[in-house]
């Protein structure tokens, strides 16, 4: 027996010697450096340098096989300084010219006004497990294209970073405001050749989770920053945030007033004297019911520029910022009150914000649209974690009206043969719909525990009362009521027999938006109970003759 144990031990050591060690992550950034420079002539440079070692086939074939760089060739020049792969044995494979492919960014598809934008796809060649990708490129913006140095630079990547270096270079006499959120590193400051440099070095940066907050656009980043999960550098050479926002205000132009007035007349024909109906007609138009397309080019990629509202009307598409401008313009032309709300990150000092910290824009209306889903719901839910101002820099409070009417629902479900899922021996089941407002939280409760704080996109207070009318000859078999209550909220399921069927009352309330590893179990308990399909299913059976 002793000899057998020795053989097993030797075999185990041999297997450990020949089997590859399982990588803790898909890849690792040995070094990641980002340098933002404002030159004396007003031009700007962003330089990115990375060294990335691949550990898995997923990293090699999908996650990191290509690098995508968006720029505007009319005002910016892209230079690839170095691009090569060092294989595991030290062999260097330089990126060939045919592996540098220039395409139209997907965000600009079906948007002719932005077809001048380019996306350089760097296809990394010579990849293998253990290979290291080296890439060094810069984007230089002409003087005047960007009004000031504006930076919002998240730190974490999907893979760990051994060393993250962030640099700011500005003319020696230029004032710059900066802050590192969610980390405590201090900059090394140096001066020479008429320039002043600020250099931060972060070591062993943990990766961000794959289950990144799923907010629309940049709102997922707001969640990550507000929860403390994502360190981010913000920097600006604006005198203050108010000056930055006022610069943006100049972009919100009406354009050709006759085009705008013609569209308003078309949308509100016969609705004169009924402001709510006029607002609803404009809201329906903005919601895309008349083929008004949405272009995903970001405010930053557009150089903080917008087309006038009249151009958006005639082209039938717009960026998020352009659509907000159009919505406000149409409402004002119709005699309604509306304004632009600017939603930005909230550093510890207001003046540290610039235009790069603007995460979203919202049309704030005095007349709320009825039964029309517009942008603004997520922003309203996240506003405690952002700064909301008008285009003069005056602070605003977003109305959290969107989706509010979905919170309380009373309906009647007539169970016909196509709704009844029949089982054997006269038994059947009736599935009840799961309310939409809760769905957005499911992605945040996929595991029984979390290692970092998470910020939910919204709190929930949702109740449904459903009267289920059963087919003749069927009766309800009964269902026990349930109630779970804790510090995070409450879930209730109540079932009661009524004439001709069953009254089902379901309610869920999530009161805490910021979840920590210590209290997360309470959120998990509530959502696990809510997601249990048994609670949303009635069991019925045929009445015996």
From TrEMBL:
InterPro entries: DUF3857 (IPR024618), DUF3858 (IPR024544). Transmembrane segments: none annotated. Residues 445-539 form the DUF3858 domain. Residues 40-208 form the DUF3857 domain. This is DUF3857 domain-containing protein. It comes from Phocaeicola coprophilus DSM 18228 = JCM 13818.
